[in-house]
Amino acid sequence: MVPDSKPILEVQNLTRRFGGLLAINDFSFKVLPGTIHGLIGPNGAGKTTTFNVISGFYAPTSGQVLYEGENVSGRKTSALAELGLIRTFQGTTLFQEFSVLDNVRIGCHRSAKAGFLSRILGTDRDVESAATAKALEILEFFGLQDLTGEPTVNLPHGHQRALGMAVALAADPKLILLDEPFTGMNPEETGRMMELVRLVRDRGVTVMLVEHDMQAVMGLCETITVMNFGTLLTEGTPEQVRKDPVVIEAYLGSASHAA
Ligand SMILES: Nc1ncnc2c1ncn2[C@@H]1O[C@H](COP(=O)(O)OP(=O)(O)O)[C@@H](O)[C@H]1O
Ligand SMILES: [Mg+2]
């Protein structure tokens, strides 16, 4: 990480209302390129809504989102994906009856580079073979190369989630937003997924993740932004955040509310 490099993502004074409810309230933070950046906070803090606004599913009520220095507030998800801002979902969005390879090939086409490729390469068949080659390369990268012909439905949970990451990577992201990538995973799957997240980052992709698994968050992230009640509570390294009394208080407070 280059400490004074320009942020790839900058959220400035973001506010999002749902009727009378302030889901995000004057929330600001920055994400530096090449980092794994965590966003944590108690249930209902506004983490998923923040991802929804950054990725264009919801427009901000006020404030702005800068991506690579450009104000992209209110742009559509598809337009942001073309710029390399990709968001994955909690739970899987794979085509279960399709093969592993076909799921990643579809991801390659979704990258909106298909039109670009066909102009360069000419025929559809060339585009297909380029997509296949790229998909195979990504599957190998994720250690899924022996499963290419397998119907996706046959894959165990951990492999399905890895495949979800492979599909996201097929879209050539620069910034990937992962919402709870470790949910429902056993410790072995979590360990493997952590390795994959690091590999993706080492490939030059900036990763921002929302996650409840504190061990995973602390183990992966360089910087952690903590939100509560829709706004910034604190920010720092895993060490700083772990020891911060306001963070402990926020989690304990929310646990006692939940009880
Ligand atoms: N589409 C929506 N309509 C109304 N309220 C919403 C909507 N999405 C989220 N909220 C509310 O916004 C608050 C923040 O939710 P969310 O971003 O899902 O929190 P987190 O992901 O941190 O658990 C919650 O009170 C939630 O009920
Ligand atoms: Mg959430």
SS strand fraction: 15-25%
CATH superfamily of the largest domain: P-loop containing nucleotide triphosphate hydrolases
Alpha-beta classification: alpha/beta
Global outline:
globular
The largest pleated sheet is described as: 6 strands, mixed
Number of beta strands: 10
- Uncertain segments are none
- What ligand species are in this complex? adenosine-5'-diphosphate, magnesium ion
CATH topology of the largest domain: Rossmann fold
Instruction: Give the SSE order as H and E letters.
Output: EEEHEEHEHHHEHEHEEHH
SSE topology sketch:
Layout: E1 9-18, E2 21-31, E3 36-40, H1 47-54, E4 62-67, E5 70-71, H2 77-82, E6 85-88, H3 100-121, H4 124-141, H5 157-170, E7 175-179, H6 187-202, E8 206-210, H7 214-220, E9 223-228, E10 231-236, H8 238-243, H9 245-258
Parallel strand pairs: 3-8, 3-9, 6-7, 7-8
Antiparallel strand pairs: 1-2, 1-4, 4-5, 9-10
Helix pairs in contact: 3-4, 3-5, 4-5, 5-6
The chain binds adenosine-5'-diphosphate (ADP) and magnesium ion.
Notes on the protein architecture:
The protein has 259 residues and is α/β, with parallel strands linked by helices. It folds into two domains: 1-84 and 173-259, Rossmann fold; 93-171, no CATH class. Helix content is 43%, strand content 23%. The protein is built from nine helices and ten strands. The strands form two sheets. A six-stranded mixed β-sheet has the order 6-7-8-3-9-10, with helices on both faces. The chain has a four-stranded antiparallel β-sheet with strand order 2-1-4-5, with helices on one face. A hairpin with a 2-residue loop joins strand 4 and strand 5. Helix 3 (100-121) crosses helix 4 (124-141), helix 4 crosses helix 5 and helix 5 (157-170) packs parallel to helix 6 (187-202). It is globular. It starts with 8 loop residues before the first strand and ends with a helix. The model has no long low-confidence stretch (mean pLDDT 89). Bound molecules: adenosine-5'-diphosphate (ADP) and magnesium ion (MG). Magnesium ion (MG) binds next to helix 1. Residues 18, 21, 23, 41, 43-49 line the site of adenosine-5'-diphosphate.
